[in-house]
Design goal:
Blueprint: H1 2-19, H2 32-41, H3 47-60, H4 64-68, H5 72-78, H6 85-102, H7 111-115, H8 122-133, H9 142-150, H10 159-169, H11 175-188, H12 203-216
């Protein structure tokens, strides 16, 4: 049953890749630092709204040193359209100061260094590592967590467990693409509420995979 389950999972991954051949981040940015800021802003906020905010923000403030010398209240006013904007403002400014003082205004390509920055958790670090540095890591946000469990790609009960399961079945060179495919599928088809199963070309594989997973237990 394990071989059968693995085969079905590979079919699901292949189908996802075919459904979203151009899958990539929808965040707009001009540098690794701007990508980091955009991902920090994206927590509990849509990419579309983040892009609305950063379209003006990144014209006024470009580099870490531009943000490092702001007062948090001033930046908060600029990013007020996204959730948790007060905390995000403080974290972006603190992170910018650390980047300026410790890393010569460059974003480190090291997980430990990234996760030591204020407001940067594992998911944010993984996004930056994958997109900016091409590392074979699997970011797990709410969409990836939900869809992976629904499709039977993982039975993990935590983002860390789902990440581990996906890393075991997704080829390293596919990590970033599958991450974005899962996000797009979660936004447009396998929605949190009222998923469009009748329109989903993965519905048969989804059921077969869940049955295979149950059969292994």
């Amino acid at each position: 049953m394990k071989n059968n389950s693995f085969t079905v999972k590979q079919e699901i991954l292949k189908e996802l890749g075919g459904l979203y051949p151009e899958a990539r981040t929808e965040l707009e940015y001009g540098s690794t630092f701007q990508l980091l800021v955009a991902v920090m802003l994206s927590a509990q906020c849509t990419d579309r709204q983040v892009n609305r905010i950063t379209s003006g923000l990144f014209q006024k403030y470009v580099k870490p040193e531009d943000f490092a010398h702001l007062e948090w209240e001033d930046l908060a006013g600029e990013i007020k359209g996204c959730g948790l904007y007060r905390n995000k403002s403080r974290n972006i400014i603190k992170t910018s100061r650390i980047l300026e003082e410790k890393y010569h205004s460059r974003v480190p390509g090291d997980r430990e260094a990234l996760e030591s920055l204020p407001g940067v958790g594992r998911k944010t670090a993984n996004v930056v590592l994958n997109i900016a540095f091409g590392r074979p890591v699997m970011p797990v946000d709410t969409h990836v967590f939900r869809i992976s469990r629904r499709l039977g790609l993982s039975a993990g009960k935590t983002p860390a467990a789902v990440e581990k399961d996906l890393q075991a079945i997704v080829p390293p060179e596919w990590m970033g693409k599958i991450h974005h495919c899962l996000i797009l599928h979660g936004r447009h088809i396998c929605r949190a509420r009222s998923p469009l199963c009748g329109k989903c070309t993965l519905s048969v594989l989804c059921l077969k995979n869940r049955m295979a997973v149950v059969g292994e237990q």
